[in-house]
Amino acid sequence: MIEQPTWYSCSARVNTIIFWMLGMAVTQQQLTDFLRHEQARLHLEATRRQTLNPVPLVDELASLPAVQRSNHPVMVVSALASIQLDESNQFTTTVAVINATDERAENALVELRWIGVNGAGYEEQQQYVTLEPNTMTEVTTLSRPLTDVDAVSILDLTLWTFLSFLPISNRYVLMHGNPSDVLRASPTTTLEIRRNDSAGFVTLTNTGTAAALGLHLSAEAVQFEDDIFSLLPAETRSISLTSDHDQPSARIRVEGWNIASISV
Fold it and tell me: Using CA atoms, how far apart are residues 4 and 24, in angstroms rounded to an integer?
């Protein structure tokens, strides 16, 4: 059984906008949305570690991409049982892979990075494991004093296996201290946003030296591939979008915990 510590863990025309983040205060709604998303996701992951099999989704959070990914047959997870603050002085968690398929996969590669909000590296590992069918395989255990960790850090997990055409990833934003205070004190960063309507996605690049936290995209009559996510320094991510119209011409609003909101 995996130990479950409590922790905080979302047209041919191309518009390019580089903007400087001004340190927007975290709103109560942003924080509430994130905590609800994470609570649903971590509860589902905890259930999966016990049952392995995908869990029927029936509540209003079932449509959220972050929650839906927690029902993939093959997952790489960290044993974060809740989003309540851990009162101990030591962070400990076990990384594992859930294989809810009938296939055996040898030489599956698990890549792990634990990074502070300013890019400081706490842990980096690569391990090959064999995934037995309908089994959870423990990969490694991380343990570190909280005094050695930023108030905000990111645990980034990636799994490479023939069981999935694309790499399987999972990312946790970890916080110790009061969430509102921690997020408001997070260093600001810069983003580059490139919108390509004809290809059907928007690309975000973190051009600053700090992680961009809690990025959220919204637009009228537009659905995005992901709901809430974060970008490490120098990281780029393209988010696909679909629209009720032939061309998703509605302006896209980008918000985040340590950025100023912007529309493109």
Answer: 33
| Amino acid making up residue 22 | L
Sign for the CA dihedral angle at 102, 107, 108, 110 comes to positive
| Alpha-carbon torsion (186, 188, 192, 196), positive or negative | positive
Contact, 119 vs 209, CB < 8 A?
Answer: yes
Concatenated DSSP letters for 18-70?
A: EEE---PPPPHHHHHHHHHHHHHHHHHHHHHHHH-S-----STTTT-HHHHGG
Global pTM value: 0.83
In degrees and rounded to multiples of 5, residue 215 shows phi and psi of: -70, 135
Is residue 263 within 8 A of residue 252, CB to CB? The reply is yes
pLDDT in tens, the chain (264 residues): 433 333 334 332 333 333 333 334 456 777 777 778 888 888 889 899 999 988 888 777 777 777 888 889 999 999 886 555 466 778 888 999 999 999 999 999 999 999 999 889 999 999 999 999 999 999 999 988 888 888 889 999 999 999 999 899 999 988 887 777 888 788 999 899 998 877 888 999 999 999 999 898 888 888 888 878 899 999 999 998 887 766 556 788 898 888 878 888
Instruction: Give the chain's domains with CATH numbers.
Output: 14-26+185-263 (2.60.40.10), 28-181 (2.60.40.10)
